[in-house]
């Protein structure tokens, strides 16, 4: 191109002299600058095009040439590319039709001689009945904010039929198996949970509906047990006093009687004197006589040869406790 421009400049100099030659030189310089910019832009465009185009296509293949319905088959997808390229392989959300995704295993990227290799093996299965089934998976190349999807070359696998083909209009031969097969029993959680919820509901209804009656029965049960325990302990202290004639055993019997009545009637007679106790029970003759005999023996130290008085005091106190227990139980509020 340069010889053509020099010849053009010489031709113009022959017709126009020095003035025309200067104008021609100025025009040639502008033309050369434009040509340089055009060449540089062309080179950059070619380089950019070379970078955006993939150097190779993904390669996909089935590791077996045949497969059965529902049988696992492995599909290998590999891609060789430049080391600096970011590549994303399909995951479980990709479209594997006519196959179904089961799992996958991948190998780390291997780089040799300025070339990188990515490889993933997918575990698939199919329930389609086509004799030949094909699959093509795309990979995604990341370039900044842009993505480029590149599909692999379709690979195919041949379906092996396990049953003979059905002839149109002919009923196939059916086989039946009526033998019982062992089945492992399973725990029926829903029914058990429903039964437990129903039982809790019934129990809650019973408690809510009969809570006053149940509370009354429980209180009577506690009173009956406490009264039986009192009678047993009281009889033990009386027996020990009879055998040993010890004032300590008599004091223990009287103290037990006071504590029992305090718990039975919810009062504090165990802290009252004999006169105050007699007044509390409205001058009851049995209480007055029994406590007077007990005070004469304990505080006056007046033992008689005959045990009639002390035995009478113990009997009167026990009978009075029985009457008070019967009165408290009878006065309990009915539901």
Automatic annotation (TrEMBL):
Record field: transmembrane: 189-210
Record key words, sorted: Membrane, Transmembrane, Transmembrane helix
Name the record gives this protein: Uncharacterized protein
């Amino acid at each position: 191109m340069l010889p053509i421009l020099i010849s053009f400049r010489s031709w113009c100099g022959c017709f126009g002299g020095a003035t025309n030659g200067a104008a021609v030189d100025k025009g040639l310089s502008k033309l050369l600058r434009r040509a340089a910019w055009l060449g540089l832009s062309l080179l950059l465009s070619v380089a950019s095009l070379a970078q955006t185009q993939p150097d190779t296509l993904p390669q996909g293949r089935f590791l077996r040439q045949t497969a059965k319905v529902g049988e696992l088959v492995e599909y290998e997808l590999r891609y060789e590319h430049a080391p600096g390229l970011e590549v994303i392989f399909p995951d479980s959300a990709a479209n594997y039709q006519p196959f179904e995704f089961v799992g996958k295993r991948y190998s780390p990227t291997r780089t040799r001689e300025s070339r990188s290799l990515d490889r993933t093996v997918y575990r698939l299965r199919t329930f389609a009945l086509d004799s030949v089934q094909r699959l093509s998976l795309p990979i995604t190349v990341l370039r900044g904010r842009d993505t480029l999807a590149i599909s692999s070359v379709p690979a195919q696998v041949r379906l092996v039929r396990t049953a003979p083909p059905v002839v149109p209009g002919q009923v196939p031969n059916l086989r039946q198996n009526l033998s019982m097969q062992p089945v492992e029993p399973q725990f029926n959680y829903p029914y058990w949970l429903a039964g437990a919820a129903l039982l809790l509901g019934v129990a809650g209804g019973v408690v809510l509906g009969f809570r006053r009656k149940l509370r009354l029965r429980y209180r009577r049960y506690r009173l009956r047990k406490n009264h039986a325990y009192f009678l047993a302990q009281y009889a033990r202290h009386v027996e020990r006093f009879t055998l040993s004639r010890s004032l300590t055993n008599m004091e223990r019997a009287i103290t037990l009687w006071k504590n029992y009545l305090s718990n039975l009637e919810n009062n504090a007679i165990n802290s009252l004197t004999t006169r105050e106790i007699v007044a509390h029970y409205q001058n009851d003759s049995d209480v007055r006589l029994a406590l007077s005999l007990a005070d004469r023996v304990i505080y006056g130290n007046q033992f008689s040869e005959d045990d009639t008085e002390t035995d009478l005091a113990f009997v009167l106190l026990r009978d009075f406790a029985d009457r008070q227990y019967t009165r408290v139980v009878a006065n309990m509020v009915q539901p």
